[in-house]
Structure formats: C-alpha cells, structure tokens
Amino acid sequence: MAGVDEAGRGPLAGPVVAAAVILDDLRPIRGLADSKTLTALQRERLHDQILAKALCCSIAQATVEEIDTHNILQATMIAMRRAVEGLRLKPVKVLVDGNRLPTLDVLAEAIVKGDARVKAISAASILAKVHRDRLCEQLHNEFPHYGFAGHKGYGTPEHLEALQRHGACVHHRRSFSPVAAALARTGGTLSVVLPADAAQPAMVIGIAEPVRLDLRTAP
C-alpha cells in the first residue's frame, strides 16, 4: 500500500507538493509521525531514511499557474495523482490523508488525520514537507526580500509587509486574496526584486514559467 500526503495548500506562494511512499515492512523506520509535529532536524533525518529504506517514493507538484487556473484543491489533487503515477511500483491500494481523493486508477481510501495514524502517510507528509521547504529556500535565494526561507510562503506579518512593499513576484499565487490585492496596487504586473548587490535594476515581467515536475525514487 502507498501513503500519500501534501504540503503547501495554505501558503501564498510556491507550488503545492505531494508525495507517495510505499514502505518496506522488512526495513522499519522509527519515529515516523505527522510532519507538523516534528522539528526541522527530525524531518530532515527521517527524509533521508525514507528515501534509503522505502520500497519506492515519488514526489510531485502542481505549479503556481495550475493553482491559479484550477484552484488550490484541484491543484492538490493533481499533485497527488502525479505522485502516485510516479511510483516505480504500482500499489494495490492508496491511502490518502484527508477526506478527498484524487482521480486514480487503483483502489484508494481517504483517511482523516492519516498523517498521524498511518506510517506510510506519515512518511509521505515528511517527504512533501522537506521537499517544499527546500524549494522555499531556493526561492529565498532568488527573492531574498520576501523572506521565503523563514515563513515558507505562508501569510505571516513579515510576508504581508513584503507584499505591500515590493508587490507580488512570479512565484506568488495570484488567485489568493493578499496577492490579488498586491497586484491590484501594481496594475497587475509581477515584479522581480533583485538582491541589493545585483548589477541590474529590478524588472517587471508578465507570467511565471512552469516549474518542472520532480519525481524521486528510493534506491
């Protein structure tokens, strides 16, 4: 059986990420739990163990453009479906955290609070969370003025203040109200804020390019 979970439904920026994991009963992993209850260090350590010990893993995402086109719920379902389809082994059943199921060609069951009840879902929640946090660190390197490394795209006071000051960048979800408000103030343009030591001035561009699907399997 495969466990599936997502990370990043609530943030104002970045893709929504989903992971699917088939654990190996002969290689148990101690400490699996809902990723939200773990420290960043614990998640990182478990992330590496999952990739090393699971029968197979897959991480996928739905882009900001897809979120804005389909809405966040449907984009989450898209990411989950991609994660399941990316598994090297086809599961006989898929266990999904929550109360909704993506469209799949295998037997599936939605389990409320499954990330705390089913180890395979816990493992998926950890992979999705770590992967998305790393993406946010990359966004921070590209757009340090927004503080993505700290708030991970969520609507914190720091992030909202940055939206007020700099407007929205290409990685912001335009369908989310704080971002839509920021775009309204700038006439609908998306700004790129370069680091202070950059040689070029800030640019204004129209749309973001899609983020490529990232699938990973355990050795």
List the SSEs and their pairings.
Layout: E1 2-7, E2 16-22, H1 40-53, E3 56-62, H2 64-70, H3 72-85, E4 93-97, E5 107-111, H4 114-117, H5 119-142, H6 148-151, H7 157-166, H8 177-185, E6 190-192, E7 203-205
Helix pairs in contact: 1-5, 2-3
Task: Produce a short descriptive summary.
The protein has 219 residues and is an alpha/beta fold. It is built from 8 helices and 7 strands, in the order E-E-H-E-H-H-E-E-H-H-H-H-H-E-E.
Structure keywords:
single chain, 219 residues, alpha/beta, Nucleotidyltransferase, domain 5, 2 domains, five-stranded mixed sheet, two-stranded antiparallel ribbon, disordered C terminus
> What's the count of strands?
7
Mean pLDDT value: 88
CATH superfamily of the largest domain: Ribonuclease H-like superfamily/Ribonuclease H
CATH topology of the largest domain: Nucleotidyltransferase, domain 5
What is the 3D shape? globular
Q: Helix count, per DSSP?
A: 8
Q: Tell me the distance between the termini.
A: 18 Å
Q: How many structural domains in the coordinates? A: 2
Helix and strand sequence: EEHEHHEEHHHHHEE
CATH domain class name of the largest domain: Alpha Beta
Q: How much helicity do the residues have?
A: 25-40%
Strand proportion: 15-25%
Biggest sheet: strands, sense, closure? 5 strands, mixed
Strand order of the largest sheet: 3-2-1-4-5
Q: Please give the radius of gyration in angstroms.
A: 18 Å
Structural class: alpha/beta
* Low-pLDDT segments, ≥5 res: 195-219
What CATH architecture label of the largest domain applies?
A: 2-Layer Sandwich
